[in-house]
Design brief:
Number of strands: 0
Order of helices and strands: HHHHHH
Strand content: under 5%
Distance between the termini: 41 Å
Structural class: mainly alpha
Radius of gyration: 13 Å
Helix content: over 70%
Shape: globular
Keywords: Membrane, Transmembrane, Transmembrane helix
Largest sheet: none
Length: about 90
């Protein structure tokens, strides 16, 4: 299943999050409520996906190097917003 999710993540992180929600319980385990995953789906999909995967792959908490991966995903999300803004301006 993780390889299939990685393939969907290459296409779209939102598509990968959708399939993770449908076929696994990773999101339920990583988050207590439903508001943060919904906001993450719409605002920061790479960050949300990285957090969910790091939560499930690790020791059921995000710590150490796993935060580095989540931080990189956050930078990718920011880059997609600001890169699109710059492309529209040019």
């Amino acid at each position: 299943m993780p390889c299939l999710i990685a393939l969907f993540a290459l296409i779209s992180p939102r598509l990968a999050l959708f399939f993770v929600l449908l076929f696994t319980s990773w999101i339920d385990r990583a988050f207590d409520g439903w508001i943060v995953p919904i906001l993450g789906f719409f605002l920061l999909p790479w960050t949300t996906l990285a957090y969910v995967v790091m939560w499930d792959v690790g020791t059921r908490e995000v710590s150490g190097f796993e935060w580095f991966i989540v931080g990189l995903a956050f930078l990718v999300d920011l880059g997609s917003y600001f890169g699109g803004k710059r492309a529209r301006r040019d």
